[in-house]
Amino acid sequence: MVANLGYGALVIALFVSLFGIGAAAYGVRKNQSAWVDSARNAMLLTWPLVTLAALSIIYLLVNNHYEVEYVANVTSNSMPLYLKVTALWGGQAGSLIFWSWLMSAFASAVTLRKWDRDREFLPWVTIVSLVTLAFFLSLSIFIENPFVRLWQTSAGQITSAMFPPARAVPYLPPDGNGLNPLLRHPGMIIHPPLLYLGFVSFVIPYAFAMAALITGRTDDRWIRLTRRWSLVAWLFLSLGLIIGGRWAYDVLGWGGYWGWDPVEIAAFMPWLTGTAFLHSVMIQEKRGMLKHWNMILVILTYDLVIFGTFLTRSGVLSSVHAFAQSAIGPVFFGFIGLTFITSLSLVLKRWNELKSEAQMTSLLSREALFLLNNLLFMGILVVCFWGVIFPLISELFTGQKVTVGPPFYERANGPLFAGLLLLMGIAPLAAWRHSTAKTLGRAIWKPFLASLVVVAAVLLRGVRQPAAVLGFWLSAFVAFVTLYEFWRGSLARYRKSGESFPVALWRLAGRNRRRYGGYIIHLGVVLMAIGIIGIEVFQTETQGTIPQGGQLALGDYSISFDSLATFDTADGRNVARAVVGVYHNGSYVGELHPRRDYYYESQQPMTIPGVRSTWEDDFYVLLVDWQPISSQGATFKVYRNPLVNWLWLGGIVFILGTLVAAWPDRDPEAMRLPVKRTVPYAATDA
Amino acid sequence: MENTVETQAGLAGRAKFIVGGLLIIAAIVYLIASSTRASAQYFLTIEELAAKNEKVLGRDVRVSGAVIGDSIQYDPQTLTLSFTVAHVPGDNKEIEAQGGLGAVLHAAAIDPNRPRMQVVYVGPKPDLLKNEAQAIMTGKLGEDGVFYAEELLLKCPTKYEEAVPGQVEG
């Protein structure tokens, strides 16, 4: 009943979307705004309809309607309520509905804005949004239907179908499969929706870009209109990636946070083009350049978003995250190809109108450095894309599947990341238009000298690995340049206005949120880089079996195995929990409880580490094995992950910076006025 | 006059950018090519590995197979894990034609005539290692015919034949 209701709502939503597409196209052709308004209402209507479908699934999940195949696959009697609700995105069919739901919500939000100044965009934004929505709705209706039910035929066989097969009776399994234990983690509950939020919100800037191309209004209006959308999309994507890393670090049990897994890369690729886009639109706004490039970036981002959704939802690549193989692959590729080719031909059609208004002259000017930044981001994108599709390519040409693993990505991307960090240190000090080595040198020498002091300190502490020394130097350099910018800006303000220094700092950042928000993001990146260098270069590990009361040492640390208990829990787990004392330089610093949970239902164990976390390092203990009668003791694997906490701190700073940059201004029109002073401080007081 | 000077400066300026851009693109291409060469691994089935025996001896390769539950042995003292995997086809289409990954793994694990291979891995025992799981291993084939895995990735299809996330060990 509820399943039919949900399915019906999906079908109606598809028809409404198709109607909206047709009405908008007709309205714009005949120049009749009544039809466009009707399309707008259709777009508004999709949201309640898809909401109804999503609520139907949630209702089925919460009330254990195991006759629905999806419910039987992803929930079970013993799961708590919040997990049953979040099981909406625990499997393939449900997550596609979730995608459509977000898409319809954003599309509706867009239609509700004031359109007076941009009326000509409306029909096209409607069409692009609704085409995307209709594509995902069709996937749900025709291929990955979450409302398919289980039936028992007269021959006794269990089949699944939306409508009752002949002479079949509904089949109700007594219990469901349950969500995979690895997914039963708070990180996993918010990680997919955040990524999806990021994915879906990038559709909106794309829709506006296409509207600009089609209508020929190719100035930077579309960029100004979607600036906040892009930033918010980017915010969610970044949050999703960071929280995914944290989840992996907590749960997957090997002390890693990022494994260059194809699905991680699938989410990383739109982030890369999105980041490049956020940087290069500034050049278009300030100097009227790179217009073709921005169009291409937003198209790439959109299709990478669809590609990312496809990669996570198909069995095309072997991955930690991969869902089952399904028939949706070719359909996805068809859609990506179609939108990509259509969008690119629109760019070609408007090629001449997108010509630059100015020319780049100086290699060290801010715009040239931004262009270089874009090149490096594209380089990382190509590396990632190459790595993901390499097995497919090699199989096509040599008949032999050849894969590349994390060493490939680290080796190829390492220098590119270093180059980006270096740019992050130089670009903020470079002036627009003309900048020479001399002016740049004058602006840069102070933070540069300060960063050398850090290098000396690092060397004195005995660090000799070239990658680490280089990484720490770059991090220090960027940090000093960024802080120097804050200091100089607020000092100038303080002197001029007579405000107290903290007030000057606050107002400085408040007046130019995008710029100083960006700098805060750069500081976040630096902190993350420090954490990454720490864990990648300095991680140490050991393992061993120790009897009760015995000790195991790792560097300055040692652990003692105090006791171990096994017990059953109410939610169907058998838990083996060890009590381990931790000693640092011989003195007791606390105890940890590494454990192993065994889920009876799915017959799967799950290893949960005990972690002692400080700013210096994380001490990470895994319970590997134990003897039931603990005379023989237990086996532990122990990691020391230096500085890794800076990675998470950096993540928080990063997100805060994005919030600052995206924060709405008091006067929305003020933002749209061109900034008068285009020369940065570097040039004015040098 | 002024105009031509500006055009010349423009041309020189553009050449500067084109050369710089090409240099960077060349550097990126070099990075990709050399890294691919340094870290490419053959992804083979157990049959292919057996056929290529000589050629891949001592080289890093990736192999996929179905885990035989009864063969799993673990020595917690040395963290040495040993198990046997049975051949499964590597082609996605072939797997689909035989009824999906779950069915293929099941058929492989119960068929005593399938080519099999012993695997040794040192490290914590992965949570997902169990009968009829799909093991994707990276490592080297030893002269003794045993596969020494350095990395072990597992996927477990559930009874409804939907593959769920596995776990990386490395």
Plain-language structure description:
The complex is a heterodimer of chains A (686) and B (170). Chain A has 686 residues and is of the alpha+beta class. Chain A has helices spanning 2-30, 33-62, 69-74, 81-86, 92-111, 122-143, 186-201, 203-215, 221-251, 262-287, 291-312, 328-349, 366-398, 406-426, 437-460, 466-497, 501-511, 513-538, 644-662, 668-672, 681-684; strands at 149-152, 158-161, 169-170, 401-404, 540-546, 551-554, 557-568, 573-584, 587-592, 595-599, 604-608, 610-613, 617-626, 634-642. Chain A starts with a helix and ends with a helix. Mean pLDDT of chain B is 77; it is low at 1-6 and 158-170. In chain B, strand 6 (134-141) and strand 7 form a beta hairpin. The interface between A and B is large, with 68 and 62 residues. Strand 4 (401-404) of chain A pairs antiparallel with strand 1 (40-45) of chain B.
Give a topology summary:
The complex is a heterodimer of chains A (686) and B (170).
Chain A: H1 2-30, H2 33-62, H3 69-74, H4 81-86, H5 92-111, H6 122-143, E1 149-152, E2 158-161, E3 169-170, H7 186-201, H8 203-215, H9 221-251, H10 262-287, H11 291-312, H12 328-349, H13 366-398, E4 401-404, H14 406-426, H15 437-460, H16 466-497, H17 501-511, H18 513-538, E5 540-546, E6 551-554, E7 557-568, E8 573-584, E9 587-592, E10 595-599, E11 604-608, E12 610-613, E13 617-626, E14 634-642, H19 644-662, H20 668-672, H21 681-684
Helix pairs in contact in A: 1-2, 1-6, 2-5, 2-6, 5-6, 5-7, 6-8, 7-9, 8-9, 8-11, 9-10, 9-19, 10-11, 10-13, 11-12, 13-14, 14-16, 15-16, 16-17, 16-18, 17-18, 18-19
Chain B: H1 2-39, E1 40-45, H2 46-56, E2 61-67, E3 73-75, E4 80-87, H3 92-97, H4 100-110, E5 116-122, E6 134-141, E7 147-157, E8 163-169
Parallel strand pairs in B: 1-2, 5-7
Antiparallel strand pairs in B: 2-4, 2-6, 3-4, 4-5, 6-7, 7-8
